[in-house]
Amino acid sequence: MPLRAQAFDGLVCNVAIPYTDESRVIREIGRILKNGARGYLCYHGSGYFLRYVVAGPSFRMRFYGVRSMLNTWYYRMTGSRLSGFWGDTLYQTHGRLLRYYRRDGLKLLESRSGKTFLGLPVFIYHLVERI
To answer: Which pLDDT does position 105 carry in this prediction?
Structure first.
């Protein structure tokens, strides 16, 4: 992002990261927040897409769920997305986010999940602070 390092007192990011390169975006969040600044972040959990796979209202929505899950697994193994429309969306996991936070000078202050599907979070809500 064309923003100065440590320029912001806080930020809100509501389900945008699933459509980006999550590793790079978390790094940028750590870079642009001032020390002690907080970020309120919301992500897709795996339950979001599993819900589409199992109970999607149409074949198209079920297919979207499958390709998003495949793309996430591919991203986790290779660090890159599948090409074309196959790679448009990722779900996040608590463990993967914690690794990014540690790497990028962020501390998790609060974590909660919204609804779950088959025991998996549909959304993940994190409050982080730059340390």
So the answer is: 98
Q: Could you give the domains of the chain?
A: 8-130 (3.40.50.150)
Cβ atoms within 10 A of the Cβ of 7, count?
A: 12
Q: Average of pLDDT values for 47-54?
A: 97
Cα dihedral sign, 84-16-31-69: negative
